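Tutorial handout. Part one gives the primary structure; part two gives the three-dimensional structure as C-alpha coordinates.
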Amino acid sequence: MSQSTQKAPGAILGTMGRERRLNIGGMPSAPTVLCLCALLGAAIAVASGVYTIAALREGLLANRLDGWWVPAGTVLLGLASLLVLLPLARAYAR
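Part two.
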Protein backbone atom coordinates (compact mmCIF):
# COMPACT_ATOMS: atom_id res chain seq x y z
CA MET A 1 0.00 0.00 0.00
CA SER A 2 1.31 3.39 -0.82
CA GLN A 3 1.00 6.37 1.40
CA SER A 4 -1.56 7.99 -0.86
CA THR A 5 -4.06 5.13 -0.39
CA GLN A 6 -3.65 4.69 3.37
CA LYS A 7 -6.37 6.15 5.51
CA ALA A 8 -5.91 7.37 9.08
CA PRO A 9 -8.22 5.88 11.70
CA GLY A 10 -11.40 7.92 11.95
CA ALA A 11 -10.64 9.81 8.76
CA ILE A 12 -13.13 10.22 5.93
CA LEU A 13 -11.87 10.57 2.40
CA GLY A 14 -13.16 13.91 1.25
CA THR A 15 -13.36 15.54 -2.14
CA MET A 16 -10.20 15.69 -4.22
CA GLY A 17 -8.51 12.96 -2.15
CA ARG A 18 -7.98 15.05 0.99
CA GLU A 19 -8.70 13.54 4.39
CA ARG A 20 -11.13 14.96 6.87
CA ARG A 21 -11.14 13.83 10.50
CA LEU A 22 -14.40 12.89 12.19
CA ASN A 23 -14.79 14.94 15.35
CA ILE A 24 -17.77 13.97 17.51
CA GLY A 25 -16.77 16.04 20.51
CA GLY A 26 -16.12 13.24 22.97
CA MET A 27 -18.39 11.32 25.29
CA PRO A 28 -21.73 12.82 26.38
CA SER A 29 -22.01 14.06 29.94
CA ALA A 30 -23.62 11.90 32.59
CA PRO A 31 -27.37 12.52 33.05
CA THR A 32 -26.98 13.41 36.73
CA VAL A 33 -29.88 15.86 36.88
CA LEU A 34 -32.22 13.40 35.21
CA CYS A 35 -31.17 10.67 37.64
CA LEU A 36 -31.74 12.97 40.62
CA CYS A 37 -35.20 13.92 39.33
CA ALA A 38 -36.10 10.24 38.97
CA LEU A 39 -34.77 9.57 42.47
CA LEU A 40 -36.85 12.44 43.86
CA GLY A 41 -39.99 11.20 42.11
CA ALA A 42 -39.46 7.68 43.41
CA ALA A 43 -38.82 9.01 46.92
CA ILE A 44 -42.13 10.90 46.78
CA ALA A 45 -43.89 7.71 45.67
CA VAL A 46 -42.28 5.78 48.52
CA ALA A 47 -43.27 8.46 51.03
CA SER A 48 -46.89 8.31 49.89
CA GLY A 49 -46.75 4.51 50.12
CA VAL A 50 -45.46 4.75 53.68
CA TYR A 51 -48.33 7.11 54.50
CA THR A 52 -50.80 4.61 53.05
CA ILE A 53 -49.24 1.78 55.04
CA ALA A 54 -49.49 3.85 58.23
CA ALA A 55 -53.15 4.63 57.52
CA LEU A 56 -53.81 0.92 56.96
CA ARG A 57 -52.11 0.08 60.25
CA GLU A 58 -54.14 2.68 62.13
CA GLY A 59 -57.33 1.37 60.56
CA LEU A 60 -56.55 -2.20 61.56
CA LEU A 61 -55.68 -1.19 65.10
CA ALA A 62 -58.83 0.96 65.39
CA ASN A 63 -60.92 -2.10 64.51
CA ARG A 64 -59.20 -4.07 67.25
CA LEU A 65 -57.20 -6.25 64.91
CA ASP A 66 -54.05 -5.89 66.97
CA GLY A 67 -52.27 -9.18 66.50
CA TRP A 68 -48.54 -9.59 66.06
CA TRP A 69 -49.00 -9.64 62.31
CA VAL A 70 -50.01 -5.96 62.07
CA PRO A 71 -46.61 -4.52 63.03
CA ALA A 72 -44.80 -7.31 61.15
CA GLY A 73 -46.85 -6.66 58.01
CA THR A 74 -46.29 -2.94 58.34
CA VAL A 75 -42.53 -3.39 58.51
CA LEU A 76 -42.50 -5.82 55.57
CA LEU A 77 -44.61 -3.51 53.41
CA GLY A 78 -42.40 -0.55 54.33
CA LEU A 79 -39.24 -2.43 53.37
CA ALA A 80 -40.83 -3.62 50.13
CA SER A 81 -41.70 -0.05 49.20
CA LEU A 82 -38.04 0.93 49.64
CA LEU A 83 -36.93 -1.66 47.08
CA VAL A 84 -38.01 0.75 44.36
CA LEU A 85 -35.14 3.09 45.25
CA LEU A 86 -32.34 0.51 45.00
CA PRO A 87 -31.84 0.52 41.21
CA LEU A 88 -31.91 4.32 41.13
CA ALA A 89 -29.38 4.57 43.95
CA ARG A 90 -27.08 2.12 42.15
CA ALA A 91 -27.40 4.04 38.88
CA TYR A 92 -26.56 7.30 40.65
CA ALA A 93 -23.51 5.72 42.30
CA ARG A 94 -22.03 4.96 38.88
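Part three, for discussion. The chain is about 55% helix and 5% strand. The beta strands are 11-13, 19-21.
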